[in-house]
Fold this protein.
Amino acid sequence: MLRRLVAGLAAIVLVVEAALLVLVHFVLGRTTANQSMSIAGSDPDVMSKATYAMGAGMGAFLVLCAVFAAVTAIRDRAPGRFGRVVLISAAVTHGVLGVLTVALVNWAAFATMMLILCLLVLTLTSYAARPGDGSGDGAGEDTPPLPPTPPFGEIKPTSP
C-alpha cells in the first residue's frame, strides 16, 4: 500500500514540476524575445526558440516519468526495463540539479530537489525485483540456472 502511495505521489509531483518548468521557460523565452537580449552576438530569436524547445523537452521528459510512475502505482508492479531506465535517469538528473541548486539558488530549492529524488528512488527500490519471488519484468526467466558450486576441497587457489 505504501509503495503505491509513493509512486502515485511521485507521479503527481513530477507533473507539477513539469508544468512549472514549462512555465518558467515560457517566461524566459518571452523575456528574451521582448528585450532582444543577445549573448556574444547570438540571435535573440534563436535563443528564445531554443528556450521554448528546452522547456517543452524537459516538460515532456518529466511527464513521461510521471506516466511510468503512475502506471507503476496503478498496476502495483515494477516498471519494465525502459521505464526503470527513464526513472533512474530522472533520479540522477535530480541529484545533479540538487547539487547545483544548493550552490546557485538556495537551500529550499535543494530540499525540493532532494524530495523529488527521494520519491523517485523510493519508487524504484520499493518495486525492485527480489530473487525468487517471481516479481519484476521477467528479464531473467529465460536464463539457465547457474552450475552448482564445487565442494570446498576442489577449489584451487589461482596464485601461490
